[in-house]
Here is the input.
Amino acid sequence: MKLTDEEQAMLAGDFGPGVQKAMEILTALGRIYGADDLVPVTSVQVAGVSYKNLGDAGLEFLAEWAAQGARVRVPTTLNPAGLDLDRWQELGFDADFAQKQARVIQAFAAMGIRTTCTCTPYLVGNVPARVDHVAWAESSAVSFANSVLGARTNREGGPSALAAAIAGRTPRYGLHLPENRRAQLVVDVRCPVQSSADFGALGAMVGRVARNRVPYFEFRVWSSGLCPPQSPITNPQLPIPDPQSPIPIDQLKALGAAMAASGAVALYHVAGLTPEAGEPGIVAPDAERVVVESLDEGYAALSSDGGDEIDLVWIGCPHASLAELAQVIELLAGRRVRAALWVTMAREVRAEAEKAGLVAALESLGGQVVADTCLVVAPVRELGFRRMATPSGKGAYYAPSHSGLAVRYGPLEACVEAAVTGHWDVA
Ligand code: F3S
Here is the structure.
Protein backbone atom coordinates (compact mmCIF):
# COMPACT_ATOMS: atom_id res chain seq x y z
CA MET A 1 0.00 0.00 0.00
CA LYS A 2 1.30 3.44 -0.93
CA LEU A 3 1.47 5.80 2.06
CA THR A 4 2.29 9.51 1.95
CA ASP A 5 5.16 10.83 4.07
CA GLU A 6 2.68 12.08 6.65
CA GLU A 7 0.92 8.70 6.77
CA GLN A 8 4.22 6.91 7.25
CA ALA A 9 5.04 9.23 10.13
CA MET A 10 1.61 8.57 11.64
CA LEU A 11 2.21 4.83 11.37
CA ALA A 12 5.67 5.17 12.90
CA GLY A 13 4.22 6.82 15.99
CA ASP A 14 5.37 10.41 15.34
CA PHE A 15 1.82 11.64 16.04
CA GLY A 16 1.43 9.64 19.24
CA PRO A 17 0.27 6.12 20.13
CA GLY A 18 -3.43 6.85 19.53
CA VAL A 19 -2.85 7.82 15.90
CA GLN A 20 -0.38 4.98 15.47
CA LYS A 21 -3.01 2.47 16.61
CA ALA A 22 -5.51 3.93 14.13
CA MET A 23 -3.01 3.65 11.29
CA GLU A 24 -2.17 0.07 12.23
CA ILE A 25 -5.85 -0.87 11.95
CA LEU A 26 -6.32 0.95 8.65
CA THR A 27 -3.20 -0.39 6.96
CA ALA A 28 -4.01 -3.94 8.10
CA LEU A 29 -7.48 -3.60 6.59
CA GLY A 30 -6.05 -2.08 3.44
CA ARG A 31 -3.70 -5.03 2.99
CA ILE A 32 -6.52 -7.55 3.57
CA TYR A 33 -8.78 -5.89 0.98
CA GLY A 34 -6.03 -5.03 -1.53
CA ALA A 35 -6.33 -1.24 -1.27
CA ASP A 36 -3.73 0.78 -3.20
CA ASP A 37 -3.74 3.66 -0.77
CA LEU A 38 -5.74 5.57 1.83
CA VAL A 39 -8.37 8.11 0.83
CA PRO A 40 -9.17 11.20 2.98
CA VAL A 41 -12.68 11.14 4.47
CA THR A 42 -14.95 14.11 5.17
CA SER A 43 -16.98 12.55 7.98
CA VAL A 44 -17.33 9.44 10.12
CA GLN A 45 -20.24 7.68 11.83
CA VAL A 46 -19.06 5.42 14.65
CA ALA A 47 -21.06 2.36 15.72
CA GLY A 48 -20.48 0.11 18.72
CA VAL A 49 -21.67 2.65 21.27
CA SER A 50 -24.09 0.72 23.47
CA TYR A 51 -22.59 -0.72 26.61
CA LYS A 52 -24.91 -3.68 26.06
CA ASN A 53 -22.78 -4.63 23.04
CA LEU A 54 -19.40 -3.31 24.17
CA GLY A 55 -19.27 -4.76 27.67
CA ASP A 56 -16.35 -3.98 29.97
CA ALA A 57 -13.75 -5.07 27.41
CA GLY A 58 -15.07 -2.61 24.83
CA LEU A 59 -15.32 0.18 27.38
CA GLU A 60 -11.69 -0.32 28.50
CA PHE A 61 -10.51 -0.46 24.87
CA LEU A 62 -12.14 2.92 24.15
CA ALA A 63 -10.97 4.52 27.39
CA GLU A 64 -7.40 3.41 26.71
CA TRP A 65 -7.48 4.73 23.15
CA ALA A 66 -8.76 8.09 24.40
CA ALA A 67 -6.08 8.15 27.11
CA GLN A 68 -3.44 7.60 24.41
CA GLY A 69 -4.35 11.04 23.07
CA ALA A 70 -6.41 9.89 20.10
CA ARG A 71 -8.48 12.79 18.70
CA VAL A 72 -10.69 12.78 15.62
CA ARG A 73 -9.63 14.79 12.59
CA VAL A 74 -13.01 15.02 10.85
CA PRO A 75 -16.61 15.62 12.00
CA THR A 76 -17.70 12.40 13.68
CA THR A 77 -21.07 11.31 15.05
CA LEU A 78 -22.15 8.33 17.17
CA ASN A 79 -24.65 5.53 16.75
CA PRO A 80 -27.38 4.94 19.37
CA ALA A 81 -26.32 4.18 22.93
CA GLY A 82 -27.93 1.68 25.30
CA LEU A 83 -30.33 4.18 26.89
CA ASP A 84 -31.70 7.70 26.80
CA LEU A 85 -28.75 9.58 28.28
CA ASP A 86 -30.95 12.15 30.05
CA ARG A 87 -34.14 10.29 30.88
CA TRP A 88 -32.88 6.77 31.62
CA GLN A 89 -34.16 6.76 35.19
CA GLU A 90 -37.67 7.78 34.22
CA LEU A 91 -37.72 4.99 31.61
CA GLY A 92 -36.63 2.36 34.12
CA PHE A 93 -33.02 1.64 33.11
CA ASP A 94 -30.55 0.25 35.62
CA ALA A 95 -28.21 2.72 37.34
CA ASP A 96 -25.11 0.54 36.98
CA PHE A 97 -25.74 0.15 33.24
CA ALA A 98 -26.28 3.92 32.95
CA GLN A 99 -23.01 4.64 34.70
CA LYS A 100 -21.05 2.31 32.39
CA GLN A 101 -22.79 3.82 29.36
CA ALA A 102 -21.83 7.31 30.56
CA ARG A 103 -18.16 6.22 30.70
CA VAL A 104 -18.38 5.01 27.10
CA ILE A 105 -19.78 8.37 26.01
CA GLN A 106 -17.08 10.22 28.00
CA ALA A 107 -14.37 8.26 26.14
CA PHE A 108 -15.87 9.22 22.78
CA ALA A 109 -16.27 12.85 23.89
CA ALA A 110 -12.62 12.95 24.98
CA MET A 111 -11.70 12.03 21.41
CA GLY A 112 -13.60 15.07 20.11
CA ILE A 113 -16.62 13.14 18.82
CA ARG A 114 -20.01 14.81 18.74
CA THR A 115 -22.01 12.72 21.18
CA THR A 116 -25.32 12.87 19.47
CA CYS A 117 -26.30 9.20 19.45
CA THR A 118 -28.32 8.44 16.36
CA CYS A 119 -28.40 6.14 13.35
CA THR A 120 -29.75 9.02 11.24
CA PRO A 121 -26.82 11.46 11.41
CA TYR A 122 -28.04 12.84 8.08
CA LEU A 123 -31.11 14.24 9.89
CA VAL A 124 -28.93 16.19 12.35
CA GLY A 125 -26.40 17.85 10.10
CA ASN A 126 -23.91 15.11 9.15
CA VAL A 127 -24.84 15.17 5.46
CA PRO A 128 -22.05 14.17 3.07
CA ALA A 129 -22.09 15.64 -0.42
CA ARG A 130 -22.24 13.51 -3.53
CA VAL A 131 -18.95 11.67 -4.22
CA ASP A 132 -17.57 12.56 -0.76
CA HIS A 133 -15.57 9.70 0.70
CA VAL A 134 -16.75 8.96 4.24
CA ALA A 135 -16.32 6.09 6.71
CA TRP A 136 -19.66 5.19 8.25
CA ALA A 137 -20.41 2.22 10.45
CA GLU A 138 -24.15 1.97 10.83
CA SER A 139 -25.58 -0.29 8.14
CA SER A 140 -28.77 1.71 7.57
CA ALA A 141 -26.87 4.99 7.50
CA VAL A 142 -24.25 3.49 5.18
CA SER A 143 -27.02 2.52 2.80
CA PHE A 144 -28.55 6.01 2.97
CA ALA A 145 -25.21 7.78 2.46
CA ASN A 146 -24.25 5.65 -0.53
CA SER A 147 -27.63 5.33 -2.18
CA VAL A 148 -29.63 8.48 -1.46
CA LEU A 149 -26.79 10.96 -1.02
CA GLY A 150 -24.34 9.44 -3.51
CA ALA A 151 -21.45 9.56 -1.01
CA ARG A 152 -18.94 6.70 -0.89
CA THR A 153 -18.47 4.47 2.09
CA ASN A 154 -17.88 0.85 2.90
CA ARG A 155 -19.86 -0.79 5.65
CA GLU A 156 -17.37 -0.09 8.42
CA GLY A 157 -17.12 -1.82 11.76
CA GLY A 158 -16.85 0.16 15.01
CA PRO A 159 -13.03 0.05 15.35
CA SER A 160 -12.34 0.70 11.65
CA ALA A 161 -14.67 3.72 11.60
CA LEU A 162 -13.09 5.12 14.75
CA ALA A 163 -9.63 4.56 13.29
CA ALA A 164 -10.72 6.42 10.13
CA ALA A 165 -11.95 9.33 12.26
CA ILE A 166 -8.64 9.52 14.15
CA ALA A 167 -6.50 9.24 11.01
CA GLY A 168 -8.90 11.19 8.75
CA ARG A 169 -8.53 8.46 6.13
CA THR A 170 -9.80 5.05 5.14
CA PRO A 171 -8.43 2.34 2.81
CA ARG A 172 -9.54 2.86 -0.79
CA TYR A 173 -11.35 -0.35 -1.74
CA GLY A 174 -14.90 -1.66 -2.16
CA LEU A 175 -17.53 1.07 -2.60
CA HIS A 176 -14.89 3.81 -2.71
CA LEU A 177 -14.13 2.57 -6.25
CA PRO A 178 -16.65 3.49 -8.99
CA GLU A 179 -16.46 0.05 -10.63
CA ASN A 180 -17.85 -1.60 -7.47
CA ARG A 181 -20.92 0.65 -7.43
CA ARG A 182 -22.57 -1.00 -10.44
CA ALA A 183 -25.75 -2.99 -9.86
CA GLN A 184 -25.63 -6.76 -10.17
CA LEU A 185 -29.33 -7.32 -9.46
CA VAL A 186 -32.27 -5.63 -11.18
CA VAL A 187 -35.48 -5.67 -9.12
CA ASP A 188 -38.60 -5.14 -11.20
CA VAL A 189 -41.24 -4.05 -8.64
CA ARG A 190 -44.71 -4.55 -10.10
CA CYS A 191 -46.87 -4.28 -6.98
CA PRO A 192 -47.70 -1.02 -5.16
CA VAL A 193 -45.17 -0.11 -2.44
CA GLN A 194 -46.44 2.78 -0.39
CA SER A 195 -45.97 2.87 3.37
CA SER A 196 -42.65 2.62 5.22
CA ALA A 197 -43.73 -0.88 6.31
CA ASP A 198 -44.19 -1.79 2.63
CA PHE A 199 -40.68 -0.58 1.92
CA GLY A 200 -39.38 -2.53 4.92
CA ALA A 201 -41.08 -5.70 3.67
CA LEU A 202 -39.66 -5.16 0.19
CA GLY A 203 -36.21 -4.56 1.68
CA ALA A 204 -36.42 -7.73 3.76
CA MET A 205 -37.20 -9.75 0.63
CA VAL A 206 -34.60 -8.14 -1.63
CA GLY A 207 -31.85 -8.22 1.00
CA ARG A 208 -32.13 -12.01 1.20
CA VAL A 209 -31.68 -12.37 -2.55
CA ALA A 210 -29.12 -9.62 -2.99
CA ARG A 211 -26.90 -10.57 -0.02
CA ASN A 212 -24.00 -8.11 -0.53
CA ARG A 213 -24.76 -7.25 -4.16
CA VAL A 214 -25.98 -3.83 -5.37
CA PRO A 215 -29.69 -3.86 -6.37
CA TYR A 216 -31.18 -1.57 -9.00
CA PHE A 217 -34.91 -0.97 -8.43
CA GLU A 218 -37.38 -0.33 -11.21
CA PHE A 219 -40.70 0.70 -9.66
CA ARG A 220 -43.71 0.51 -11.98
CA VAL A 221 -45.49 3.07 -9.77
CA TRP A 222 -43.98 5.48 -7.26
CA SER A 223 -45.26 5.37 -3.68
CA SER A 224 -46.81 8.78 -4.38
CA GLY A 225 -48.94 7.11 -7.06
CA LEU A 226 -47.11 8.89 -9.89
CA CYS A 227 -45.49 7.00 -12.74
CA PRO A 228 -41.71 7.09 -12.85
CA PRO A 229 -40.14 8.87 -15.81
CA GLN A 230 -39.23 6.60 -18.72
CA SER A 231 -35.59 7.60 -18.70
CA PRO A 232 -33.78 8.01 -15.42
CA ILE A 233 -33.05 11.49 -14.12
CA THR A 234 -29.30 11.92 -13.94
CA ASN A 235 -28.10 13.05 -10.56
CA PRO A 236 -31.22 14.61 -9.08
CA GLN A 237 -29.15 15.46 -5.97
CA LEU A 238 -31.85 14.71 -3.46
CA PRO A 239 -31.88 17.38 -0.81
CA ILE A 240 -32.93 16.67 2.78
CA PRO A 241 -35.71 17.09 3.67
CA ASP A 242 -37.29 16.62 0.31
CA PRO A 243 -41.05 16.85 0.36
CA GLN A 244 -41.10 16.62 -3.43
CA SER A 245 -39.31 13.27 -3.66
CA PRO A 246 -41.50 10.67 -5.38
CA ILE A 247 -40.41 8.23 -2.69
CA PRO A 248 -40.14 10.16 0.59
CA ILE A 249 -36.89 10.12 2.52
CA ASP A 250 -38.47 8.17 5.41
CA GLN A 251 -39.38 5.35 3.05
CA LEU A 252 -35.96 5.26 1.41
CA LYS A 253 -34.39 4.91 4.84
CA ALA A 254 -36.79 2.08 5.68
CA LEU A 255 -35.91 0.27 2.43
CA GLY A 256 -32.16 0.58 2.91
CA ALA A 257 -32.28 -0.39 6.58
CA ALA A 258 -34.25 -3.58 5.91
CA MET A 259 -31.95 -4.65 3.05
CA ALA A 260 -28.92 -3.99 5.20
CA ALA A 261 -30.41 -6.25 7.90
CA SER A 262 -31.71 -9.22 5.93
CA GLY A 263 -28.75 -9.02 3.54
CA ALA A 264 -25.59 -6.98 3.61
CA VAL A 265 -26.70 -4.41 1.06
CA ALA A 266 -24.68 -1.21 1.43
CA LEU A 267 -25.78 0.53 -1.78
CA TYR A 268 -28.87 0.47 -3.99
CA HIS A 269 -30.08 2.48 -6.93
CA VAL A 270 -33.63 3.49 -7.84
CA ALA A 271 -34.26 4.19 -11.53
CA GLY A 272 -35.31 7.78 -12.03
CA LEU A 273 -34.53 8.81 -8.48
CA THR A 274 -31.19 8.16 -6.78
CA PRO A 275 -28.08 10.11 -7.80
CA GLU A 276 -26.14 7.42 -9.63
CA ALA A 277 -29.04 5.53 -11.20
CA GLY A 278 -28.76 7.37 -14.51
CA GLU A 279 -25.02 6.92 -14.98
CA PRO A 280 -23.99 4.99 -18.11
CA GLY A 281 -23.18 1.36 -17.35
CA ILE A 282 -24.58 1.53 -13.81
CA VAL A 283 -26.23 -1.89 -14.31
CA ALA A 284 -23.71 -4.66 -15.01
CA PRO A 285 -24.41 -6.43 -18.32
CA ASP A 286 -24.72 -9.81 -16.58
CA ALA A 287 -27.00 -8.54 -13.77
CA GLU A 288 -29.58 -11.02 -12.49
CA ARG A 289 -33.21 -9.91 -12.84
CA VAL A 290 -35.97 -10.63 -10.32
CA VAL A 291 -39.63 -9.62 -10.33
CA VAL A 292 -41.57 -8.66 -7.17
CA GLU A 293 -45.34 -9.03 -7.57
CA SER A 294 -46.34 -9.11 -3.89
CA LEU A 295 -44.94 -8.05 -0.51
CA ASP A 296 -46.66 -10.87 1.41
CA GLU A 297 -43.48 -12.90 1.82
CA GLY A 298 -41.67 -9.91 3.34
CA TYR A 299 -44.49 -9.16 5.78
CA ALA A 300 -44.67 -12.81 6.85
CA ALA A 301 -40.91 -13.11 7.34
CA LEU A 302 -40.81 -10.15 9.71
CA SER A 303 -43.40 -11.39 12.20
CA SER A 304 -42.44 -14.01 14.77
CA ASP A 305 -44.59 -16.26 16.95
CA GLY A 306 -45.41 -15.29 20.50
CA GLY A 307 -49.08 -14.34 20.70
CA ASP A 308 -51.08 -11.24 19.88
CA GLU A 309 -50.93 -9.44 23.22
CA ILE A 310 -48.63 -6.45 22.70
CA ASP A 311 -46.81 -4.73 25.55
CA LEU A 312 -44.60 -2.43 23.49
CA VAL A 313 -44.95 -0.57 20.21
CA TRP A 314 -41.77 0.79 18.66
CA ILE A 315 -41.62 3.48 15.98
CA GLY A 316 -38.31 4.99 14.90
CA CYS A 317 -35.99 2.43 13.37
CA PRO A 318 -34.03 4.04 11.79
CA HIS A 319 -34.52 6.97 14.14
CA ALA A 320 -37.74 8.84 13.41
CA SER A 321 -38.13 12.17 11.70
CA LEU A 322 -40.46 14.91 12.92
CA ALA A 323 -42.92 13.92 10.19
CA GLU A 324 -43.09 10.33 11.48
CA LEU A 325 -43.75 11.51 15.04
CA ALA A 326 -46.46 13.87 13.83
CA GLN A 327 -48.10 11.00 11.94
CA VAL A 328 -48.19 8.82 15.07
CA ILE A 329 -49.92 11.60 17.03
CA GLU A 330 -52.40 12.11 14.22
CA LEU A 331 -53.23 8.40 14.13
CA LEU A 332 -53.76 8.31 17.90
CA ALA A 333 -56.46 10.93 17.42
CA GLY A 334 -56.56 11.80 21.12
CA ARG A 335 -56.75 8.19 22.38
CA ARG A 336 -54.56 7.07 25.28
CA VAL A 337 -52.27 4.08 24.78
CA ARG A 338 -52.59 0.86 26.76
CA ALA A 339 -49.24 -0.66 25.68
CA ALA A 340 -45.96 1.21 26.01
CA LEU A 341 -45.37 3.34 22.91
CA TRP A 342 -41.81 4.45 22.20
CA VAL A 343 -40.81 6.73 19.35
CA THR A 344 -37.00 6.74 19.17
CA MET A 345 -35.14 9.61 17.55
CA ALA A 346 -32.01 11.77 17.65
CA ARG A 347 -31.75 14.13 20.61
CA GLU A 348 -31.70 17.16 18.27
CA VAL A 349 -34.86 15.98 16.52
CA ARG A 350 -36.48 15.46 19.91
CA ALA A 351 -35.58 19.06 20.81
CA GLU A 352 -37.27 20.26 17.62
CA ALA A 353 -40.28 18.09 18.44
CA GLU A 354 -40.44 19.65 21.90
CA LYS A 355 -40.50 23.14 20.39
CA ALA A 356 -43.27 22.08 18.03
CA GLY A 357 -45.35 20.71 20.94
CA LEU A 358 -45.17 17.16 19.60
CA VAL A 359 -43.43 15.64 22.64
CA ALA A 360 -46.05 17.03 25.01
CA ALA A 361 -48.81 15.85 22.66
CA LEU A 362 -47.51 12.26 22.61
CA GLU A 363 -46.78 12.18 26.34
CA SER A 364 -50.27 13.42 27.16
CA LEU A 365 -51.57 10.24 25.49
CA GLY A 366 -49.14 7.97 27.37
CA GLY A 367 -46.43 7.61 24.69
CA GLN A 368 -42.73 8.38 25.05
CA VAL A 369 -40.30 10.18 22.75
CA VAL A 370 -37.02 8.46 23.56
CA ALA A 371 -33.68 9.94 22.47
CA ASP A 372 -30.17 8.47 22.02
CA THR A 373 -31.11 4.78 21.89
CA CYS A 374 -33.16 2.09 20.20
CA LEU A 375 -34.79 -1.17 21.17
CA VAL A 376 -32.14 -3.30 19.51
CA VAL A 377 -29.18 -1.84 21.40
CA ALA A 378 -31.01 -1.14 24.70
CA PRO A 379 -31.44 -3.87 27.34
CA VAL A 380 -35.23 -3.95 26.84
CA ARG A 381 -35.85 -7.44 28.27
CA GLU A 382 -34.69 -6.07 31.61
CA LEU A 383 -37.47 -3.47 31.34
CA GLY A 384 -40.00 -6.30 31.26
CA PHE A 385 -41.09 -6.08 27.61
CA ARG A 386 -41.85 -9.33 25.78
CA ARG A 387 -44.04 -8.73 22.70
CA MET A 388 -43.58 -5.81 20.38
CA ALA A 389 -45.32 -4.38 17.33
CA THR A 390 -43.35 -2.27 14.85
CA PRO A 391 -43.59 -0.94 11.29
CA SER A 392 -39.78 -1.11 10.94
CA GLY A 393 -38.32 -3.91 8.83
CA LYS A 394 -34.90 -3.65 10.44
CA GLY A 395 -36.33 -3.43 13.95
CA ALA A 396 -38.53 -6.47 13.35
CA TYR A 397 -35.62 -8.40 11.87
CA TYR A 398 -33.27 -7.86 14.82
CA ALA A 399 -35.55 -7.57 17.85
CA PRO A 400 -36.06 -11.34 18.37
CA SER A 401 -32.34 -12.22 18.24
CA HIS A 402 -30.86 -9.08 19.83
CA SER A 403 -33.54 -8.15 22.34
CA GLY A 404 -35.46 -11.38 22.94
CA LEU A 405 -38.76 -9.85 21.86
CA ALA A 406 -41.52 -11.55 19.86
CA VAL A 407 -42.56 -9.26 17.01
CA ARG A 408 -45.69 -8.37 15.10
CA TYR A 409 -44.84 -6.47 11.92
CA GLY A 410 -47.25 -4.24 10.05
CA PRO A 411 -48.18 -0.77 8.86
CA LEU A 412 -47.95 2.22 11.17
CA GLU A 413 -51.74 2.40 11.42
CA ALA A 414 -51.90 -1.19 12.76
CA CYS A 415 -49.07 -0.53 15.20
CA VAL A 416 -50.76 2.56 16.59
CA GLU A 417 -53.99 0.59 17.02
CA ALA A 418 -52.01 -2.09 18.88
CA ALA A 419 -50.65 0.61 21.19
CA VAL A 420 -54.20 1.74 21.96
CA THR A 421 -55.72 -1.72 22.46
CA GLY A 422 -52.68 -3.71 23.62
CA HIS A 423 -53.63 -6.28 21.00
CA TRP A 424 -52.54 -7.11 17.44
CA ASP A 425 -55.65 -7.38 15.32
CA VAL A 426 -54.23 -7.72 11.82
CA ALA A 427 -55.03 -11.04 10.15
FE1 F3S B 1 -31.09 2.56 14.20
FE2 F3S B 1 -31.35 0.82 16.10
FE3 F3S B 1 -32.77 0.59 13.93
S1 F3S B 1 -29.47 1.67 15.38
S2 F3S B 1 -31.51 1.46 12.33
S3 F3S B 1 -32.91 2.26 15.41
S4 F3S B 1 -31.77 -1.08 15.02
